[in-house]
Amino acid sequence: MKRSRVITTALVLALGAGVIAFAPLPGASAKPANRHFRVEASAFKYTPATIRVNAGDHVTIDLVSTDVVHGLYVDGYDVSVTADPGRTASLSFVANRTGMFRLRCSVTCGAMHPFMIGKLHVGRNDLLWRALVLTLFAGLAGILLARVREVRQ
Amino acid sequence: MRAESGARLLVVFGAVALAVLTVVAVRVPARAVELRGRLPDDGGWSPGAISARVGEPLTLRMTSDDVVHGFAIGQSARPAVDLLPGKWMTTTVVFDKPGKYTYYCTRWCGPNHWRMRGTIEVTGSGARVLADSVPLFLRLKLDLDQAHPSDLLPAETPTAARAGGLPTPVALDGGDLRTQSPAQVWRALRKHPGNARLTDQQLWDEVAAVWRAATSRERLAEGRQLYRDNCAACHGETGRGDGVMAKALVAGPAADPSGIEHSGMPGMSGHGTVAPTDFTNKRNMLGASAAFLQGKLIRGGMGTGMPYWGPIFTESQLWALVDHLWTFQFDYESGAGSSGASRTTHDSASKPAMRPH
């Protein structure tokens, strides 16, 4: 087994890793749409607790509180809104960051306030998938390189 | 010798400094009152009563011990302050009239949120706040717990724009529109021979026009905002009595509030509750006068779960709120190009010509 062979193998593996990490993924990205959600906040949950939108969508969330004053803070977008019962408040933003983001209550509403959370999914979580595939690829590459070394010795 | 004079100087200087410090300490009374908010079930405000003097700044250091509360003083234009647990907020108030002021919570903190109130007793000279304002319902000796159904109902929503201006002046009892229910005015219009050719629905449109002429765009906007902030939680954003808190209120004998049931909601203290009034109900609303509605607001529900707003709203805020309540019965907007284009020369605040008997 020549040294150049090892180097070639390593280069090919590095190239593969680069492709996995940076290549544009297939999958039609939907046209940006206006998405409207009505989220009910009650002690200590959001209904619905999960919101899915496509990247680039104009998202409007109407927050309706059904018991005490609650808030809604979107992690990663840094926008928030507060609603008392009877005073529906709304929040608008453009979902231009992909991934999964936490929704949190931004108003101390009671004992379980820290656990009042929801999720916002924007598009496909490419980062997660790339990371998963890259991890598997790295494992395989490790095994392969180890075997190449064994053969050399 | 020199040492002695130095000692004298020192003593004199010390005495003068002490006097100055004393004067300064007396002149600047840092009257900061610490005010803590808790859920009403856990004691509400502490202290629940504060005293102050006219013209002297009252400094309040406020915080919350549990959830988010808000602080505002009734019948004043001061904006509300949000109180966050663990944060101290400081505000300074100067009262220019003596009297008893109510401070109250402005954030829905729990089912008994509206019971979270305290009082500030302000002493000093001057005309007392709320001095001689006896509310109209008391002057009229209205019984607020009396059922007041209207036996006359319009076929469709009375629409001000459909009426050709204001109706023929008619004699009404007392002459003050605020003391009349729409049904009474309708009846008076019906009796008048000049209206013989008009249909019943046309007369209802006339009544709506009369009611619209008695208010103004600004007052309706103010009333709408007050309603949204204080009433919609129970009475609903559409006035149907189906607000988000209404689910928690037990439906009881709404028609007979005196039949108090003690089956109130869990967490509700001391009283039975009934379903909030439905302002879209024609039978109830068209039989009520503005004075009656204002009385209900001032006095509250007496065991129905309706708060009493007397110490919170000013007289003009109460009337603005009542003006807004009629919009659940009358259509002031449609057909008018929504810009009030068809408004008659009788505009806001000018009451239709009414001759007392």
3D structure, described in words:
The complex is a heterodimer of chains A (153) and B (357). With 153 residues, chain A is α+β, with helices and mostly antiparallel strands. In chain A, 31% of the residues lie in helices and 34% in strands. Chain A has a five-stranded mixed beta sheet. In chain A, helix 1 runs antiparallel to helix 2. The model of chain A has no long low-confidence stretch (mean pLDDT 89). Chain B has 357 residues and is α+β, with helices and mostly antiparallel strands. In chain B, 27% of the residues lie in helices and 13% in strands. Chain B has helices at residues 2-27, 136-139, 182-191, 200-213, 217-230, 232-235, 282-285, 290-299, 315-326; strands spanning 32-37, 45-46, 49-53, 58-64, 69-73, 81-83, 89-93, 99-104, 117-123. In chain B, strand 1 (32-37) and strand 2 form a beta hairpin. Chain B starts with a helix and ends in a 31-residue tail after the last helix. Chain A binds chain B through residues 64-69, 84-88, 107-110, 113, and chain B through 64, 66-68, 84-85, 107-111, 113, 228-229, 231-234, 236-237, 243-245, 247-248.
Give unreliable regions of chain A as ranges.
Answer: none
Q: Please state the structural category of chain B.
A: alpha+beta
> What's the main sheet of chain A like?
5 strands, mixed
Strand order of the largest sheet of chain B: 3-9-8-5-6
